[in-house]
Design brief:
50% of the residues lie in helices and 9% in strands. It has 258 residues and is of the alpha+beta class. The radius of gyration is 19 Å and the shape is globular.
Length: 258
């Protein structure tokens, strides 16, 4: 009988810390989510020295996804050493599937780490709708783990509720970058333009035009054109949920934004 899924563990050959900074951990999430697009990704989480993933695919498929991810990450982070042999463990029944899912998302607590308080190096933000890159994984969780509730996911963050917020204004850009999985606003890329439009929408008329243009690194005429563009409502919701997350956990807001 074929396993339901596989639990994958990756680490560098010398078990050193993979991504020491918040920006690097955000990049790890982006690379993994891009490589797993179109596949049944259920969960992933990077801690200090290793990354866990749960994927509802064959062993051969998981092995190929890991290979592509490790190659891309080695290049993106300019890693000094290569990855060791990955562990790919079969998940044989539904109880095991749920337990592995929960275990992976709780890795920070398991290892006593508090350096990623917003869990940006996992797909928990995507499952909550607070990041758009891996929102597809929420569909996989609904298919394979239909008993997982939003309350269960929020409990991983120590929260009982998370509702959309519009501020404070100084947090809008960091929240937007987290929602898009970016380290900076790439104003000349399609993704950057969409993100800038989302920021304009969330800010509304609560900031002087000149200050908003400076914040986005554009001139006033470009800002005017941005206001005419259609709005990505999924991204808007993600930004507002990121703002709510910072409001709900104010003591970690600066770390999340770093």
């Amino acid at each position: 009988m074929n396993p339901i899924a596989h639990h994958v563990i990756c680490r560098l050959a010398d078990s050193r810390v993979i991504a020491p900074t918040p920006g690097e951990r955000r990049l790890v999430a982006r690379v993994l989510l891009e490589k797993c697009r179109g596949r049944q990704l259920l969960a992933f989480n990077l801690v200090d020295t290793h990354l866990h993933g749960e994927i509802a695919e064959s062993r051969a498929c998981c092995g190929e996804l890991v290979r592509r991810f490790e190659l891309a990450l080695h290049h993106a982070l300019c890693l000094e050493v290569g990855f060791g042999q990955p562990e790919i463990r079969p998940v044989k029944d539904q109880r095991h599937l749920f337990n592995a899912f929960d275990y992976i998302l709780r890795q920070s607590d398991h290892h006593g780490l508090d350096w990623d308080p917003c869990l940006e190096a996992s797909n928990l933000p995507d499952l909550l709708g607070a990041r758009v890159l891996g929102i597809y994984s929420a569909g996989s969780v609904r298919r394979y783990l239909p008993r997982v509730r939003r309350q269960d996911l929020l409990a991983t963050l120590g929260l009982s509720r998370l509702e959309e917020a519009d501020g404070p204004l100084e947090d809008v850009v960091p929240a937007a970058l987290a929602a898009a999985g970016l380290a900076e606003i790439r104003s000349r890329s399609a993704e950057g333009v969409t993100l800038a439009r989302a920021i304009v929408e969330v800010v509304g008329d609560r900031m002087p035009v000149g200050r908003l243009a400076d914040l986005l690194g554009v001139n006033r005429s470009t800002l005017f054109r941005l206001r005419q563009r259609p709005v990505d409502q999924v991204l808007i919701r993600a930004v507002r949920l990121q703002l709510a997350l910072r409001r709900a956990r104010p003591s970690v807001g600066n770390v999340c934004a770093a």
